[in-house]
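Page 42, continued from yesterday. The earlier attempt failed because a stray header line got pasted into the input along with the sequence. Redoing it now with the clean sequence only.
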Amino acid sequence: MSRYSPQLRFPNVCAKCLALSPAKSWRVSGATSGLTILLRVRTTNYSLDVPVCEECQAALRRAYNISLIVGIGFFILFTWMGSSMLASPYPVDEISIGIAAIVSYFLVSLIIYPVAVNVTGAKIGKISGTPPKVSFNNQEYDTLYKAINPFG
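This time it went through. Structure tokens are written below.
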């Protein structure tokens, strides 16, 4: 273990429902960005496997899959509608489909999918800030986590 990357510890309870001795895990991820000396943006991605019980993992997986299906559905809908609008006086061609797909991708990835993830509850925590800090939606679990990881 390096002195620059201390080991994070997790309470021995489920991060979602606080059940004792969770046997499964769920990935919490995030990213931080900053400028380098040469004024380039450097992004660092982080992810942690957080302990959850079997029931919560199944519920989280179900919510995640629903969010994914909603995102894909909106992508198809926006691509179809956008290509039809772009090519309204002309037949639909590859260029209008390509432009509509790119716009649809950004709409879905930046707005629709994150909203769906939050609405369905497929997110139990996040990693954000500089230096990166972990926080959890369950306030009791967040308090327990911070008690054993005061700097994490």
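Notes: Confidence is low (pLDDT under 50) at residues 1-5.
Reminder to self: strip header lines before submitting.
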